[in-house]
Design brief:
This protein is mainly beta. It contains one helix and nine strands. The strands form two sheets. Strands 1-9-8-4-3-2 form a six-stranded antiparallel sheet, with no helix packed on it. Strands 5-6-7 form a three-stranded antiparallel sheet, with no helix packed on it. The chain is globular, with a radius of gyration of 19 Å. It starts with a helix and ends with a strand.
Length: about 150
């Protein structure tokens, strides 16, 4: 019985983390749902894998979202507000091909993976892009949500 108690104590010590969350302190996770009709000219480029589009609708995320078709009928969606700044007048990122750039500090992010591409090597904590859910419904529409 004593060995079981020691085992449980040791197991509980190793299963605890001091940093259990990887939550971005700059961005709130806002609930929304937005349907993208790929037949519309505004979103037609999303029918090609590797293409990205900025959705600047006020009901999508904090500052809009970047939608990318990463593979045939597979989509990824990321928040358009720079993940390393509180939302402000310069924190809406600008899209060029598959690179989103934060005009506040020229940080660059991949709209395919959401990762920061030019992370400074200064020991500070930097965040990658906040990802939202995307599902292709089979009838030429993509539903993005959080």
């Amino acid at each position: 019985m004593k060995q079981i108690c020691i085992f449980i104590i040791i197991l509980s010590m190793f299963s605890c983390e001091k940093n259990a969350t990887n939550r971005n302190p700059y961005l709130q996770e806002i609930g929304f749902r937005f349907d993208i009709n790929l037949n519309l000219p505004l979103y037609n480029s999303l029918t090609n894998p590797g293409s990205s589009v900025f959705i600047g609708n006020a009901s999508v995320g904090t500052r809009g979202a970047f939608v990318t078709q990463t593979n045939i009928n597979v989509f990824r969606v990321f928040e358009a507000s720079c993940p390393n700044h509180a939302p402000n007048n310069c924190s809406t990122m600008q899209l060029s091909s598959n690179i989103a750039t934060c005009p506040c500090d020229d940080y660059e992010y991949s709209t395919i993976t959401g990762q920061m591409l030019n992370r400074p090597d200064d020991g500070a904590r930097y965040y990658d892009m906040l990802e939202y859910r995307a599902s292709y419904n089979g009838s030429n529409a993509v539903v993005i949500s959080n």
